[in-house]
Amino acid sequence: HRWNRLAWRITARTGYEWILLAMAVWLVHNLVDINIYFASIGVIGAVLIGILFWKNERNVSPPAAWQIGVFGLLSLVVVAFASLSMVSSELQHRAQAEYEDHKYTAAVATLDHAKAIMPLNSSLFYDAGEILLDVYSRSRDARNLTSATESFRRAMALSPMKVGPHVGLGLCLSWTQDKETALKEVRIAEELYPDSTYVQSIVKLMEGHK
Question: What's this model's pTM, rounded to 2 decimal places?
Answer without folding.
Answer: 0.70
